[in-house]
Design goal:
By secondary structure, this protein is of the alpha/beta class. The chain has helices at about 10-15, 40-55, 70-75, 90-100, 135-145, 155-165, 180-190, 200-205, 255-270, 270-280, 290-310, and strands at about 1-5, 25-30, 60, 85-90, 110-120, 120-125, 150, 175, 195-200, 210-215, 245-250, 285. The longest helix has 22 residues, at about 290-310.
């Protein structure tokens, strides 16, 4: 699925300050997950604004499947000239530890550029279960081994459920999906029981109260569900995480292009209407310097590798 974003007028061109990056053709922004999820929403917000700034269309392509590996493989093989980018989540740092074989080398075939946004992660459940909070869910799941299911779109959100399962000694069944929008709809319908997602992905379902939020797995509450306490506030430690939507290029993108794209991302991020939209989506601005994001990426890679060994999650 592709959508060309970045339609503008000559007047809009004249109002824009010169961009740092100067693409000479359309830029492709790969989202390795299905349409409608948090990654997709953030990608389309920035694609439109970057397209206006660069005076070239930015084409968002959803290449979902294999926990993000299909879209990632496409980017890994693309020319390293800044015209092919990818917006991913921490799954890119997790997948090498979960999958025995990937069609790329994660540490050499991607260039970390910056974070676009920092989401808040929430645990949701089907309303039919009528759990008042995360602790009530844990007690029910512990009393009925193998009864309750948990969904995930990617290994990043799956790890929250895995940590909950291991730390609370729960026997639950994993149900994988290609997009968070799909499993959110199934949560609302009672097809699957629970799952962790960014508040951004869950936002339409939170507004309509089609799902129940049991807790926030982030250091702070979500502005989309301000009355829902964090898991730490509920006395359930070990679930707080710092998730991100990260912008990557293929491996070996020249430092000058990386720097230019980062500068333009900061320009877009500081636009008042973009800030307002990010607040509506329930995310905080990112914008880390490329070197800082690269350090975060490598640290997450190592941390998740140790976590997967500790949780004894088998390779696929």
């Amino acid at each position: 699925m592709a959508l060309v974003l970045g339609m503008w007028s000559c007047l809009a061109w004249a109002q824009q300050s010169p961009s740092s990056f100067q693409p000479n053709r359309a830029v492709t922004l790969i989202v390795p997950y299905g349409a409608g999820g948090g990654t997709d929403q953030v990608a389309r917000l920035f694609a439109q604004k970057l397209g206006e700034l660069w005076r070239q269309p930015v084409v968002v392509e959803n290449r979902a499947g294999a926990d993000g590996a299909i879209g990632s493989a496409f980017v890994a093989k693309a020319p390293a000239d800044g015209h092919t980018l990818m917006l991913s989540v921490a799954s890119i740092a997790i997948n090498p530890h979960v999958f025995a074989k990937l069609p790329f080398d994660t540490l050499t075939q991607f260039t970390p550029i910056t974070t676009l946004a920092l989401p808040v992660v929430v645990m949701v459940a089907t309303p039919a279960l009528q759990f008042k909070d995360g602790r009530a869910f844990i007690e029910a799941a512990r009393a009925a081994p193998g009864k309750y299911t948990y969904a995930s779109t990617d290994t990043s959100t799956r790890m929250y459920s895995e940590r909950l399962r291991a730390s609370q000694n729960l026997d639950m069944v994993h149900v994988p999906y290609k997009s968070s929008a799909q499993w959110m709809a199934d949560i609302a319908a009672g097809v699957v029981d629970s799952g962790f997602a960014s508040a951004t992905s869950a936002r339409p379902f939170l507004i309509d109260r089609r799902v129940q939020v049991l807790g926030v797995a982030s250091p702070k509450r979500s502005n989309l569900a301000p009355d829902v306490p964090t898991f730490t506030e509920q006395g359930i430690p070990g679930l707080d995480g710092k998730s991100w939507y990260g912008l990557f290029g293929p491996g070996k993108v020249p430092p000058g292009i990386v720097k230019a794209i980062h500068e333009d991302v900061l320009r877009v991020m500081n636009m008042p209407d973009v800030r307002d939209k990010m607040d509506t989506l329930g995310v905080d601005p990112g914008g880390e310097a490329p070197a800082d994001f690269a350090k975060r990426f490598l640290a997450d890679y190592a941390e998740y590798g140790e976590m997967i060994k500790r949780l004894k999650i088998p390779q696929q």
